[in-house]
């Protein structure tokens, strides 16, 4: 499918009890969900949480993805990427300061939200969001960023570092992991995997839990199964960074086909009660 002329992202923010967060735009006199255009170089996941913050004042994390909206704006094609979202911290919008772009932010019961929404496409998106039952947790499976070639590295391969382009990838991974509010960082003990997570660890003041069982040299199918099963059972929002040869065992444990990740690419697995309910794939170049 050709890329749309306008790319935007947003989230259907829900809270306990089923209320939905909605915004009113005075320019169009419409009610919708918080969303906006992707900035140059910005990842769609980062755009979604940024737009919600800018338009509502709330910090959120992304959950399950929803189907994209595709429509025309004049002569241009537009796509809006949506996720179900949850507030991180306070969900109080009483102190929101109206402005020319958004003059009202309101929590609305889901049944009334359907009536208040201006556009049929938003009512369809709301129905899909309401069909998502229960909270999910997230496991991000990440292949380490671009590393120096093995053929040019003469010492212990565990010490092989990222290339400059890989270090840049690692920096760009930060806002994507932040969009899912990843709290636990688990990595192969090899340098290139640890380096891939280091910018996010620094940005969030979190430790990296290194595991020899996820390294190329020491990984076994049984060892990988034990690590992945424990992470799934733990229920924390987690990123697991490892190597291409180890990934098939990771995905086998999750009951998924190996998608063949590129360096710096991540496969986001949404889980409820230990079962996979949705997946998505993102490449950060």
Can you put this structure into words, describing what you see?
The chain has 285 residues and is α/β, with parallel strands linked by helices. The protein folds into two domains: 6-130, Alpha-Beta Complex (Nucleoside Triphosphate Pyrophosphohydrolase), CATH 3.90.79.10; 137-283, 3-Layer(aba) Sandwich (Rossmann fold), CATH 3.40.50.1240. The chain has helices at 44-56, 110-116, 120-130, 164-179, 191-204, 221-234, 247-254; strands at residues 6-13, 20-25, 30-32, 35-37, 60-73, 76-87, 104-108, 137-143, 184-188, 208-211, 238-242, 265-272, 275-283. The strands form three sheets. Strands 10-9-11-8-12-13 form a six-stranded mixed beta sheet, sandwiched between helices. It has a four-stranded mixed beta sheet with strand order 4-1-6-5. The model has no long low-confidence stretch (mean pLDDT 96).
Please describe the topology of this protein.
Blueprint: E1 6-13, E2 20-25, E3 30-32, E4 35-37, H1 44-56, E5 60-73, E6 76-87, E7 104-108, H2 110-116, H3 120-130, E8 137-143, H4 164-179, E9 184-188, H5 191-204, E10 208-211, H6 221-234, E11 238-242, H7 247-254, E12 265-272, E13 275-283
Parallel strand pairs: 1-6, 8-11, 9-10, 9-11
Antiparallel strand pairs: 1-4, 2-3, 2-7, 5-6, 8-12, 12-13
Helix pairs in contact: 1-4, 2-3, 4-5, 6-7
């Amino acid at each position: 499918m050709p890329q749309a002329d306008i790319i935007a992202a947003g989230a259907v923010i829900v809270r306990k009890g089923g209320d939905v967060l909605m915004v009113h735009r005075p320019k169009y006199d419409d009610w919708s969900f918080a969303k906006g255009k992707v900035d140059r170089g910005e990842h769609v996941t980062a755009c979604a949480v940024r737009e919600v913050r800018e338009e509502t004042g709330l910090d959120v994390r992304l959950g399950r993805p929803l189907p994209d909206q595709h429509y025309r704006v004049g002569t241009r094609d537009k796509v809006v990427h949506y996720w179900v979202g949850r507030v991180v911290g306070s969900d109080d919008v009483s102190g929101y300061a109206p402005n020319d772009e958004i003059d009202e932010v309101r929590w609305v019961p889901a049944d009334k939200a359907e009536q208040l929404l201006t556009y049929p496409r938003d009512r369809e998106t709301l129905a899909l969001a309401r069909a998502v039952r229960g909270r999910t947790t997230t496991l991000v499976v990440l292949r380490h960023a671009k590393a120096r070639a093995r053929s040019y590295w003469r010492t212990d391969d565990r010490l092989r570092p990222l290339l400059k382009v890989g270090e840049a990838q690692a920096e760009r991974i930060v806002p994507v992991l932040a969009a899912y509010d990843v709290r636990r960082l688990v990595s192969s003990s090899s340098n290139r995997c640890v380096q891939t997570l280091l910018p996010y660890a620094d940005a969030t003041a979190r430790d990296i839990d290194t595991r020899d069982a996820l390294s190329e040299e020491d990984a076994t199918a049984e060892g990988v199964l034990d690590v992945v099963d424990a992470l799934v059972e733990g229920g924390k929002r987690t990123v697991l960074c490892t190597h291409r040869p180890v990934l098939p065992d990771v995905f086998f444990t999750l009951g998924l086909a190996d998608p063949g990740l590129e360096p710096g690419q991540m496969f986001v697995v949404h889980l409820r009660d230990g079962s996979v309910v949705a997946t998505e794939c993102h490449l950060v170049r």
